[in-house]
Amino acid sequence: MQAAAIVILNYNGKKMLERFLPSVLSNSIFPIIVADNASTDDSIEFLKSHYPQIQLLHLAENTGFAGGYNKALRQLEGEYEYYILLNSDVEVTQGWDKGLIEFLSQNPEVASVQPKITSAQIAGLFDYAGAGGGFLDDLGYPYCRGRIFDSIEEDMGQYDDTITVDWSSGACMAIRASDFHDHGGFDDRFFAHMEEIDLCWRIRSSGRKIYYLGSVEVRHLGGGTLARNSPKKTMLNFRNSLLMLHKNLPKSRFLKVYATRLILDLLAMLVFVGKGKLGDAKAILKAHIGFFNLKNMYNRHSMASNLPSGSNKNIKSILWHYYAKGKKQFTML
Q: Which InterPro entries match (predicted)?
């Protein structure tokens, strides 16, 4: 069995591959595999002509981030001890992959680890996805050190540490192959967004740990497949948050949380309407409808009740801290 593989999921991402793949090739020691999610652009032709040394996995249809990675990693099962899942719009630094895999090999109790993720758009700022390590509040809202909602901190070395976190970012996460497969991989229903948070919740419920390694840095562009201001992204985030809570919380706890989420999500709809973002307001309604359509398509994970709060940080409501108390940085919490 080989040590590790860097697996990049691609969907119509020729421009991202042109821009970011050179840094991955020049700064990595492990083999690179591109799994193509049935792209309709000329991504495959570009890779074959410019990077014939890269292994390609051809997926028959686009099943999103969750389904695409599940299919790709099933093909690789048994070949590698570790996977590094990397978005196609990430610029990496020298030794990044070695650092992540060495950390996992030296800490057998850790299932997954992410690096520090800064912005490839604005130098010196943290990125939206993962930033300095991610957490969940009791209502299922994710937040990060370095980024809470739309407030993004400058990277001044304040999160160059190594800590346990609630989840590792799908933009760049190293994970033991055994942990990925033993815990069922990503939930296909999610399609995209928050599937890594759900997987990390299930992994932690079995007693395994998730870590952030601030000594390794990558830079993420973001929005390479779906723009951050897209109503579809809004729908996926709200819907998948509910799916995650439904499958990972005890039923009695979920019902209480859902009642609160209904009120908060209604308020979010009104805020979007007030800002003239009708598409986002409709997206929240579609999210709840989608949740009810999908919620019974997955058996609850029996071990999830071992973590009723789902978090290491024990923040009841990040919304309350952010909007009511004005705590817009992690150090204020």
A: Glyco_trans_2-like (IPR001173), Nucleotide-diphossugar_trans (IPR029044)
What interhelical angle do 195-205 and 231-248 show, nearest 10?
20
Q: What CATH number is given to the structural domain containing 97?
A: 3.90.550.10
Helix, strand, coil tally for the chain in percent (to 5): 40, 20, 35
Q: pLDDT tens digit string along 320-331?
A: 999 989 999 999
| Assigned domain for 209 exists | yes
The residue range of the domain holding 79 is: 2-220
242 has a pLDDT exceeding 90: yes
Location of structure tokens 């409808």: 289
Pairing, β 209-220 against β 162-164:
antiparallel
d(CA 287, CA 236): 7
CA distance 87 to 172: 7
How far is CA 263 from each of CA 40, 208, 258, 267, rounded to the nearest angstrom?
41, 34, 9, 6
Q: What is the tally of structural domains in the chain?
A: 2
Beta-strand runs (E) in 40-160 = 55-58, 80-86, 90-92, 110-119, 134-136, 142-144, 147-148, 151-152
Its pTM surpasses 0.90: yes
pLDDT-based confidence at residue 94 (cuts at 50, 70, 90)? very high
